Amino acid sequence: MMQDIYVVGVGMTPFGKFRDKSIKDMTREAVTGALADAGFAAEHIDGAFFSNAVQGHMEGQHMIRGEIALREMGIQGIPVVNVENACASASTGFKLAVDFLKAGNGDCCLAVGAEKMYSDDRALMFAAFDSGWDVSNGEAVAQRLADLGAGVEEPEGSKSSKPYSVFMDVYAGFARLHMKTFGTTQEHFAAVSAKNHGHSVHNPLAQYRDSMSIDQVLAAPPITYPLTLPMCAPISDGAAAAVLCTGEGLKRLGIDRTRAIRVKAAVLRSGTDRAPEDHENHLTRLAALQAYEQAGLGPDDMSLAEVHDATAVGEVIQIENLGFVPFGEGGRASLRGETTIGGRIPVNTSGGLESKGHPVGATGIGQIFELVTQLRGEAGARQVDGAQNAIAENGGGLHGVEEAAACVTILGR
Asked: Which intervals hold domain Thiolase C-terminal (predicted)?
């Protein structure tokens, strides 16, 4: 019989802009924290999955990033696998760690994501995202995205004159399509952003910790309509790690079961050539259905969610895909407060990518850190009362009219 898998330790650095910290520094901080949280030493780790998306672009370090980052802290002589899957890298590494243990390759496995993205060279920094789609026909991809939002007028002065990630144009296309199809408004997206900035006030590891009102979000500098600056995830540095064990590993190492959180589902999918209006077959919708089936649970069983809000429209789309609201209702539900802590289904209690930060290769395990903290009842002022089951959705890249890859993970007591 296949063993249950548990998260027994988590560690995370603050997310932000850290000129004085290297990938090695941040990896060490996150992994040391996760091992201390688990209560055992690195020598008990049977395998490691190291996730990173842009170190090759930023620093020229390709091929053996994980072996280099981990050896100095004594993790060597075991399988180390490097994982690159755009913004879904860390959740992909986490899923592979689960599979490593289920396959009987060991009792304990490490999943870690680390990213150093911030640079004074702005052109280099923003160019890190340029290969997150098919580079062989980039102009055609850009035009297809522009066509998604055709018919939604861009007000004068609603586009930034400063450099920004090409993926903000991607999300603007998705946003305009949602507005055109469902009547969603810029205020709805602003409500998501204001909620997430409010949540991050209580997260000591978040990049931004100032609350914002809907009006402040709307009045902020524009990026590309309908997105303003606070609706968009910042450029971030940071790392996060998780230690996973089999049930046998828990017994052998004498780990406290009361703080062990069970992995109830871990699903990875790639996108398909669906039509833009075919919402039922969005890859994260299909991944969520698969995850719910694996876990024997449904949307109503979830106590909270962390979703990939690289922009506010991302959260609107994903809470629909996860089945928390009908298609087209994500913005209205957010404006009504249903996704706020204390609401019907709290979403992005960490502050989300918009406010907690988005070091892309670490983001997915950053979400796991939040879910584990909540399920243990250790989230302090942002704690969701009585949290029993929680879900994370993490997407990466673009292919066609959706993410190239997406992971959905369900954890529970």
From this structure: 284-399
Closest C-alpha to 288, from 273, 260, 308: 308
100-138 pLDDT, tens digit per residue, is 999 999 999 999 999 999 999 999 999 998 899 899 988
Close Cβ partners of 60 (under 8 Å, ≥ 6 residues apart): none
Rounded to whole angstroms, how far apart are CA atoms 287 and 394? 11
What pLDDT band is residue 145 in, cutting at 50, 70 and 90? confident
Q: List the structure tokens of 268.
A: 């990875």
- Whether residue 226 is preceded by a cis peptide bond, meaning omega within 30 degrees of 0, is yes
Q: Is the pLDDT of residue 1 over 70?
A: no
Beta-strand ranges (E) seen in 37-173 are 47-51, 80-83, 108-116
Per-state percent for the chain, helix, strand, coil, to nearest 5:
40, 20, 40
In order of 36, 164, 229, 367, the CA distances from 223 in angstroms are: 41, 8, 6, 25
How far apart (Å, rounded) are the C-alpha atoms in residues 350 and 127?
Answer: 27
Q: What does the pLDDT read at residue 130? A: 87
Strands 237-246 and 261-270: unpaired
Just list the catalytic residues: 87, 358
- Decide if 48 contacts 112 (C-beta within 8 A): yes
pTM: 0.97
What amino acid is encoded at 111 in this protein? A
- Up-side HSE of residue 54: CA atoms within 13 Å toward CB? 30
CB 100 within 8 A of CB 83: no
User: What phi and psi values does residue 183 have, to the nearest 5 degrees?
Assistant: 80, 15
Nearest to 4 by CA among 208, 219, 245: 245
Dist CA 130 CA 166 (whole Å): 7
Residues contacting 386, CB < 8 A, separation 6+? 303
